[in-house]
Amino acid sequence: MADTTDTPAVGADTGGKQPKSVRVVLLALMIAMMLAMLDNMIIGTAMPTIVGELGGLEHLSWVVTAYTLATAASTPLWGKLGDMYGRKGTFLSSIVIFLIGSALSGMAQNMGELIGFRAVQGLGAGGLMVGVMAIIGDLIPPRERGKYQGMMAGVMALAMIGGPLVGGTITDNWGWRWAFYINLPLGVVALVAVSAVLHLPKKRSEARIDYLGAALLTVGITAIVLVTTWGGTEYAWSSARIMELIGIGVAALVGFAFWQTKAAEPVVPLHIFRSRNFTLMSVIGFITGFVMFGATLFLPLYQQSVQGASATNSGLLLLPMLGAMLVTSMVAGRVTTNTGRYKVFPILGSVLMTVGLYLLSTMDTGTSRVTSGVFMAVVGFGMGCLMQITMLVAQNSVEMKDMGVASSSTTLFRTLGSSFGVAIMGALFNNRVQDVMSERAGALGSKVTEQSAQLDAKSLEKLPVLAREAYQHAVSAGTHSAFLLGAVVAVFALAAAVFVKEVPLKGAGPKAKDEPDAPAAQPPVAETV
Q1: Which of 39, 104, 266, 354 gives a 20 to 30 Å CA spacing to 522?
Q2: Judging by beta carbons within 10 Å of its beta carbon (0-12, 13-18, 19+), is residue 499 exposed, middle or buried?
Q3: pTM more than 0.85
Q4: Do the domains spanning 20-209 and 266-503 agree at the CATH topology level?
C-alpha cells in the first residue's frame, strides 16, 4: 500500500458529519449506478425502432443477452481487480469501457455490430455496480452505511420507473441512437468527479491474476445465463442444447470451486463463505433477485392485458411497489444507523415479501387496480427491508481486504437470481397461458399463443372478443402460478433470515447498549459458522 486516503470515511474523524468531498464522490457514484441500471430499461422501449432500421429481428434477444452475459461474467473479476490493484483505477476503467461501448453501440450499422458493442458496454457495467458498492464500503463504516440505503434504493426506483419513459421520449424525438449517446455526458461527469475528488490508498499486488479461475467462472456463468435465457424459448428445456449447456456449466463451476482452493490469489476466495452471515446474505440476495425481476416482468403484463392499463407509461405501473421499497429502505437504513441492529429487517422483509407474493397470486380478471396496488406495496415493503441490508451485512461479514469480492459476489448472486426468476417464472407463466387458452378458445387459442404467450397491446386489440377474454383469463392464471411459485421461493429467504447472527456494525453513530467500543477505522472481522 502507498499513501493514506485523502477522502476520510464518514464518521471516522469527522464526528459523523459527511465531508464535502465524500458528498461529491457519492453523487458521482450514484450517477454511475444510474448508468448501469438505466441502460436496459431505456433500450427496451427503443428496440422496435432499432429493429426497424437495422433489421435482424431473429437476433433481437441477443441485444439484451449479450449485455447481461458480459455484466454477469465480469462482475466477480472487477471486484477482485479492485481488491488487488486499487478501487479507484479499476472503477474509472469500468466507466471508460462502458462509455466506449455506449458510443460504439450508438454508431452500430447492423445488428451484429450492435450485439458486439452491447457486450463491451456490459463488460463495463459489471464494474460500475461492484465499484459503487465497494467504494461506499471503503469510505463509509457499516454503522453509517445504512443512511445511504435510501439513496441507492431511490436510484433503483428512478431507473425502473423513468427508464421506459426516458427511452420512449428519446427514441421519438432524437432517434434510437441517442438512447446510447445519453450515457456519454452523464458518464463524463462521473468520471471527472471521481478522478478529481476520490483519493483511496494505492495498491500493488505481486500476485498474478487467476486467469484459469476467471476463465472457468466465466464459462460457468455464461452457461447458466444462456440456459435461463434460451430454456423454454429458443430451445425446449429437454433439448440437447440446453442439456449440453447445463453439463458445461456444472463442470465449469465444480472445476472453479476446486481451483479456488489451489490458486495463490483466487478470484473468489472461498473462505468468505465460512462466514455464516455472508453465505445467508448470498442466499437471500439470490431469492430477492429471483422475486423482484419476476415481479417487474409480469405485473405490467397483467395490468396491461387484464386491467386495460396503457403500455406507454409501463414504468409507472410499478410505482406502488417501488415507492414502498424506497420508503422502507430509507427507514430501515436510519434505524440500522441509529441502533446498530439489523436482523429484524431480513426477517420482516422475507415475511412481507412472501405474504405480498401470495396476495398477488390471488389476482384474477375482477381484481381492481387499487387492490393490486396494495398487494404490490406489500411486496415493495418486503423488498425495501432486504435490498440494501443484504449488501450491508455481507460487507460487514468480511475483512476489508475482501470488500471487493464480497460486493461482487453478492451482486452476482442477485443477478443470477434474477436470471433464474425470469426463466422459471416465465416458463411456468407461458405453459399456463397456453393451457388455459386451449381450454377456453380451442384451436383459435392455441394459434393465438403459438408464437408467444405474451401479446402486446396492438396484437390484443386485433383478437376476436372470445379470444381476448380467454387471453385475459389465461394471463390471470399464468400470473397466479408465477407469483405462487415466487411466494414458495420467498419462504426460503425467511428460513435463511432466521439464522442470521447479529454482529454489531462498526463505525460511528449512537451505540447500542451492549455494543463494545471499537475504533471506527477497524475493519469488521468475519464471524465463522
Answers
A1: 266
A2: middle
A3: no
A4: yes
